[in-house]
Amino acid sequence: MIDFLNYLINGALVGLLYALIAMGFVVIYRASKVFNIAQGELVVFGGFMVWWMIVQAGLPMAVGIPLAFVAAIAFGLAIEKIFFSRLVGESVFSMVMVTIGLLILIRGLVLVLFGPAVRPFPIIFPLKPIILGDILIPRSLLFGGLITIATGLGLSWFFNATRTGLRMTAVAEDHQVALSLGISVKRSIAFAWALGATLSTLGAIIFLSGKSLNFLASDIGLAALPVALLAGFESIAGVLLAGLIVGIVQGLVTAYVDPAVGGAVGSVFPFLIMLAILFIRPTGMFGWKTIERV
Amino acid sequence: MAYASIFRLLAGSALALGAATGGAHAQASYAIASIADFTGPYADIMKDLAGSRRATVDWWNEEVGKGLGVKVTIKDYDGRYDAAQIASLWPGIKAELNPVVILGTGGPDVAALQGRLPGEKVPMIMATAGYGFAWKPDPWIFNPRPTYGHEAGAFYEWYRAQRNIQGPLKVAVISSEASPAYVDIHKGVEKYAKDHPTKAELVEIVYTDVQPTDLTTQVSRLVRKGAQVINIQTNTAAVVATKRALQALGKTDIPIMMSSHNGLLTSGKATGGLKELEGDYEVYGMAVPTDEKTGPHDFQQKLVSKYKAQIGWTVATVMGLNQTLVALRAIEAAAKKTGADKVTGEAVRAAILSQPIATEQTFGILPNLAYTNEAPFPTSGLTVNIATVKNGKYTIVADKAPVPKIDKW
Description:
The complex is a heterodimer of chains A (294) and B (409). Chain A has helices at residues 2-32, 39-56, 61-82, 92-114, 139-161, 163-173, 175-180, 185-208, 219-231, 236-261, 265-280; strands at 119-120, 130-132, 135-137, 212-213. Helices cover 72% and strands 3% of the residues of chain A. Chain A is built from 11 helices and 4 strands. A two-stranded antiparallel ribbon of chain A has the order 1-4. With 409 residues, chain B is of the alpha/beta class. Chain B has helices at 2-26, 46-68, 83-97, 107-113, 117-120, 148-163, 180-195, 216-224, 236-248, 264-271, 295-307, 315-338, 345-354; strands at 28-36, 70-78, 101-103, 124-125, 141-142, 169-175, 200-207, 229-231, 256-258, 281-284, 383-390, 393-402. Classes of the chains: A mainly alpha (294), B alpha/beta (409). The interface between A and B is large, with 38 and 37 residues.
């Protein structure tokens, strides 16, 4: 029973980490209708910014982390300015193709700027877990989970209850219509990319605290994809629930099925969920249902 | 006068032609294809690995090849540690270079080429330990080291004797299914434990991602199951995550055993310093690159000072040196046997199988190697070296520990 509780809690916290990364997908999608395949690369870039500020430049965390966020936001804005501001009104397909190019570009950029070596990521959260009897709760994941919930609820409120958030939603609906209503599409998309880069950097801090960093850390983007699909690409609060579901299921399968079958079923299982969702309900659990006039 | 000029011109041309053809006879040229990973998971060690390959070829051309009338050229190809990439590169490599031998990087090279090389008649030399999935007779791919399972088994036996452990050593494995080589590694350890139940007991294999999120829960479970050693022969990220989990749990008495490609130096850098891995171990069947003055270290120093090699003294360097020396010694033996101008891939393979390579020929980087037609690696007489971090210093603790017998899996 204790083991089960450990796996359950750990799975839920890992799921919340996935949810935080998945929020990056959702925020960019909600504001621009762009499915950003390069989300994992943004995590790596944000991670390297934190590493550079704290380890390389030797800045104290209180200075280095905010500066890393500033650098990541600038990077997000640069991506929007260089690539996506020119694509306003273009097809979704074109934008997705650009994100594929972006994935390759950022990976190359990271290799050129920081090299392929594995770097020690600073210990942001204390290593010692919280121990409640026989239950172990890793602090980085616990604090990360709390930050994720607060961020998710905050963003949900932002998109549903503020004028800026609602404007971004209008942009996601249709660029031309948004323009005709006097909404600055470019500004909305720029804001979305800045937000996406911020969330990715936050995800990198929680994911990598005390561990190691190189360009392969971008795999976390792939792990978060089933969460975004399960929730539906428009629902930020839904991402929290989907993250919990995927994380718990993955944790339990890893604990109980993997040793029995002698294989890593746990890492495949989220993708089985993703495929099932695409078959049964392509818009995800909380995705918008669109009605098209024919 | 005009006739004299024409005569001089013709005579000069004939001399030049003679010199050119004579020169070609004097030094036959052969190519080595060097498969590297400049943009994949092992890109971080490629500067030293590929650099040491090139430097060893320079040394051999100057100090051995000249006397034999053989010149070897080497060209790098980025296989990205990806079997599909390597399979797609190979026809181009064959057409462009027509190599007499290939230097491989890891499991994906073996998976991609093991079916093709017998038909193409080109042998491949690896730097890594062997793989169970490639453990077949009539090999065209050769490892200078036994399988990872063998190397781990050698460590378990040495560690058990050192600690005077009476029952079987309780071993936990942290692995991944991200690569066929990783799967093969833990299958080898499983096989060792099955074949030697009095010496090792496998308490659990934990499967993780290539970049694990957090392993505290899993490592806590291994601790509760009584693991005495944690075996990680996959990658650096897994070592760092496991070390952090052990630190979080306050466990300092369970060592991590690593391999060459994720050893103490690389994993130490990624963890924040070598001192973080105090009491952990690395094991492999080749020289350990400590600061001590040894034959292998002298050879590396020679490559740096005389052949301007830009390489450090690292495990990756030792890997590059080991495979290139085996390849060049085989070319050397083939040239002596068949004649300098008749070296082919087939002749190089025949030389590997028939001509043992003495440890002196590799400057002590490898033990004596005697390949047979039974396996891609020598099945007897192999040894491993074991290193640890002692008082913050990278130290060799066992030299030439014997490799145990394991049946095929």
